Amino acid sequence: MTADRQKPGGVGLCRGTAFAFAFALAVVAAFASGGQAEAATLDEVRARGHVICGISEGTPGFASVTGEGTWAGLDVGFCSAVATAALGRRDAVKFRVVSAANRYQALTAGEVDLLPRANSRTLSRDTENGVRFVDTLFHDGQGFLVKRGYAVASVLELSGTTVCVLTGTSAEQGLETFFQSRKMRYQVITAEKWVDAVKAYADGACTVLTGDITVLAAERSRFINPAEHVIMPELISKEMLGPIVRQGDEQWFSIVRWTLAALISAEELGIASQNIDSLRTSPNVDIRRFVGLEADLGQAMGLSRDWSYQVVHQVGNYGELFERNIGLRSPLGLERGVNNLWTRGGLLSAGPLR
Questions:
Q1: DSSP-assigned letters across all residues of 193-228
Q2: Which of 8, 68, 282, 334 has the fewest CB atoms within 10 Å, i.e. is most exposed?
Q3: Are 167 and 188 in contact (CB under 8 A)?
């Protein structure tokens, strides 16, 4: 009787123990597989020896092929910075052209490791495409291009003007909202194709051409005399463009995020490619931490101790990348504007490297 009563209890205990053991194994396996998933992109990048960056072809100042057959631009520079952080070499990167129709698919399928500046960040894009927006590399937005002789200093002085715009776009909607909400008069001249809108502006059919400032700057650079055309300082919309990675890889997300932060933080600290070696003896603890002397900031991401030093040493800081590719001395001739540091009246900021 005692044996009979103990038998069911004993079996129950064994089953309970087995269930608990199986559950524990499942939890361990889940954590293990999660860790593997998080390390997948960095492991693949290191196994192949280079980062694959998905870029849009033919965007002057951001990603275009030079006469020497090499890629150049702000997007290209950022990808080189990520390659430097992950592999220690700025040239350890290859570029794959992606289109607006297939860029998210190329990223989620593992054909590319990141998109440096593919789309502006929105809730739906960040939650419905299997991707994650990292941060803002470039603040874009709708602006206005006018001929230098047109005596206005602000978009608020454009009442009564004629504006060329591409029909059926957010730019047309933004134009209407901006002028009507301020009770400003305007005449709109629409075009079915962007090239036609540009031609109408160049021929004098309208006084102002509107669109994203990156597009306006690219078109201005193609004019016979670019200096005769001015991009007005204000934006009437915001487009936060920045790196995009696959969902589910927190390690790679962190690497891309903090590479961008390192570029911005370096400029804030006065660290540039030309002076970073001399600053290794600085008593400033933030600078010493940045160059890897005070702390190992790369260990948690699987990077080398001096990864941020190498990024700036080989690629430069954010300001250097901006001026080299799209700044006033470049063919695009863009002012820093909202893409200046927050300490200089812009929107650019990053979390501290500590």
A1: SHHHHHHHHHTTS-SEEEEEHHHHHHHHHHSSSGGG
A2: 68
A3: no
The superfamily (CATH) of domain 49-139+240-344 is Periplasmic binding protein-like II (3.40.190.10)
Q: Could you tell me if 315 and 324 are in contact, meaning their C-beta atoms sit under 8 angstroms apart?
A: no
Round to whole Å and give the CA distance between 131 and 110. Answer: 11
Domain layout of the chain by residue ranges: 1-48, 49-139+240-344, 142-237
Q: Sort strands 244-246 and 131-133 into parallel, antiparallel or unpaired.
A: antiparallel
Chain centroid offset of residue 56 CA: 13
* Best CATH choice for the domain 142-237 from the list 3.40.640.10, 3.90.550.10, 3.90.180.10, 3.40.190.10: 3.40.190.10
Report the greatest alpha carbon distance in the chain. 107
Tally of CB atoms within 10 A around 74: 27
Residues of the chain with pLDDT under 70: 1-39
Mean pLDDT of the residues in the chain: 88
pTM above 0.70, yes or no: yes
CA atoms 17, 18, 23, 25: torsion sign: positive
pLDDT at residue 151 in the model: 82
